[in-house]
Amino acid sequence: MKKIILDGETLTLDEAVRAARSANRVALTADAKARVRASRAVVEKAVRDRRIVYGITTGFGAFSDVAISPSQARTLQKNILMSHAAGVGDPLPDDIVRLVLLLMINSKAKGYSGLSPATLKALMDLFNHSVIPIVPEKGSVGASGDLAPLAHLSLVLIGRGRAHQGGRAMTGASALRRAGLKPVTLAAGEGLALINGTQVMTAIAAACLAGSQRVSKLADIAAAMSLEVLLGSRTQFHKRIHRLRPHSGQNEAAANLRALTEKSEIISSHKDCGRVQDAYSLRCSPQVHGASRDTIRFARQVVETEIRSATENPLVFPDGLILSGGNFHGQPVALVMDHLAVALAELASISERRIERMVNPALSGLPSFLIDQGGLNSGFMISQYTAAALVSENKGLAHPASVDSIPTSANKEDHVSMGTIAARKAKEVLKNVQTVIAIELLAAAQALDLFTNLSAGVGTRAAYESLRRHVPHMERDRELGVDIETVTGLADEILEAVEQATGSLL
User: Fold this and answer.
1) DSSP 182
2) 8 Å CB contact between 190 and 318
3) Vertex 367: Cα angle to 366 and 368 (nearest 5)
4) DSSP for 356-402?
5) To the nearest 10°, the Cα dihedral for 88, 90, 96, 100?
6) Catalytic residue positions, numbered
7) How confident is the model at residue 499 (pLDDT cuts 50, 70, 90)?
8) Model confidence band, residue 280 (pLDDT cutoffs 50, 70, 90)
9) What is the pLDDT of residue 64?
10) Distance (Å, whole) CA 51 – CA 436
11) Which string of DSSP letters, residue by residue, matches 10-63?
12) Contact between residue 416 and residue 143 where contact means Cβ atoms under 8 Å apart
């Protein structure tokens, strides 16, 4: 079992996603432990000196002008968790909650939260003993961070709330007991330190971005397969075209499409035909896919920065300074997740157009809906309907959440980010895109079976063979939804097979 050593400064998006999905354990560096101790000492001194410090010796939000005595400090921290645990909706998936825990630990390891070493260890114990709080997905406006979902998560630390442990749902107290852990008693400022932060929106965003990189490669694979069966040209992927428009994503997508269709006998067989230009969904695939790739890259930069940031309020500095600010505001994540949703939606939009060209005999020259005995069999007719439905749904989901703001906390929090909503929407768009690309792969494989005497490209052939190991050619109608679900789950296997044949795709 691998141990992930956190220092608050170096965790990457990919490392975080992998660690959250495995049985890895976490630990802190010696420097991180020292910073946490120093930060906590500042808070304790402020309490002893009866300083007025937001959330430590005062109430929260609109109650920031209400002084809290030291004797009430612990009750205040317990109350903030209970009162703020007002989330609703379906629970976040367990792997996302583990990722939230990991990002919380990493943020606290920076040493600016004022959290005590004991409470931080308790947070690490949840991760290390697979006690996974049950966290409703809705209720955050992304202003003072993710207040409601982080409150639900943190309740388990004090033996309240609910959690999964050993695959079962139970009370937080029961989950702690089963793991051999004890509830903690929060000291001054710790409840606020636990629920101020952007870790929920950032965790959802990180998981979405990990999937986005994979789906961008699969989109290139699907486009290359469609290009072949639609008798498209490789000319539009020529290096000299793309060097004149040096967007990184466009050049990467063109390079992938060249590699995937290398040595394609299908494409070579019609190189002297009378067609001058392909339809945009084929000819402009590097430009469209590439623009989405550039957006994914930018979003990764923002989210990776957020992973390594301190987003609590107040921020407690080891030299004794305590500053109240707004690092918890989710605007950076909100904006890039809205942008990502649009970019992902475009991958599905252009994919659906290629699906339509394959199933429409007027555009493809192939049998209607890619099936023999059309009429008796409907073939891939309704798979295009499904793709169209998902593309249409994405159009609604791509409406930006970040352009909305509803004031909260008696207008104290008068501009909020809606960052968690933006991240959740982008994740739903990604799911739809993965399905549309799976439909295109299925349709292209079905069409490729019609070219039995001609070999596909190096990469497209590998994708076809990987898919056909699990899904046979459709001779007559069957339940196509099962095939779509199967291919959606084959993303990693198909990509691995292709990259073994072509080398790593960009």
Assistant:
1) -
2) no
3) 115
4) HHHH-HHHHSSPGGG-SSBTTB-TTHHHHHHHHHHHHHHHHHTS-ST
5) 10
6) 54
7) very high
8) very high
9) 65
10) 58
11) ---HHHHHHHHHS--EEEE-HHHHHHHHHHHHHHHHHHHTT---TTTTB-SGGG
12) yes
Integer Cα distance of 321 and 43 in angstroms: 10
For each of the domains in the chain, give its residue range(s) and CATH number, in order of start. 3-197 (1.10.275.10), 205-502 (1.20.200.10)
Residue 243, amino acid: R
Instruction: Say how far apart CA 12 and CA 52 lie, in whole Å.
Output: 37
Q: How far apart, in Å, do the first and last CA atoms of the chain sit?
A: 31
What does the angle CA 15 – CA 148 – CA 88 come to, to the nearest 5 degrees? 105
| φ/ψ of residue 197, rounded to 5 | 160, 160
Handedness of CA 436, 438, 439, 444 (dihedral sign): positive
pTM, two decimals, is 0.95
What pLDDT is recorded for position 276? 61
Average pLDDT of every residue of the chain: 94
98 contacts 24 by C-beta, under 8 angstroms: no
Dump the DSSP string for 130-154.
Answer: T-EE--EEE---SBSBSHHHHHHHH
SS3 label, residue 238:
coil
- The residues near 375 (Cβ < 8 Å, ≥ 6 apart) are none
Cα separation, 119 vs 184, in Å, equals 7
Residue 88: strand pairing partners = 138
Place of tokens 């439905």: 389
CA distance to 131, 205, 431, 435, per residue, from 428 (Å)? 26, 11, 5, 11
**Separation between Cα atoms, residue 19 and residue 98, nearest integer Å:** 9
- Residue 89 belongs to what H/E stretch? strand 88-91
- For 282-327, what is each residue's pLDDT tens digit? 999 999 999 999 999 999 999 999 999 999 999 999 999 999 999 9
Local structure of 303: helix, strand or coil: helix
DSSP classification of residue 409: T
Q: Give every CB contact of residue 431 below 8 A, 6+ residues apart in sequence.
A: none
**Which residues have a Cβ under 8 Å from the Cβ of 280 and sit 6 or more positions away?**
353
CB atoms within 10 A of CB 361: 13
Number of residues written out for the chain? 506
Helix (H, G, I), strand (E, B) or coil at 4: strand
Q: Are strands 315-316 and 162-165 parallel, antiparallel or unpaired?
A: unpaired
Q: How far apart are CA 104 and CA 82, in angstroms?
A: 19
Q: How far apart are CA 105 and CA 11, in angstroms?
A: 11
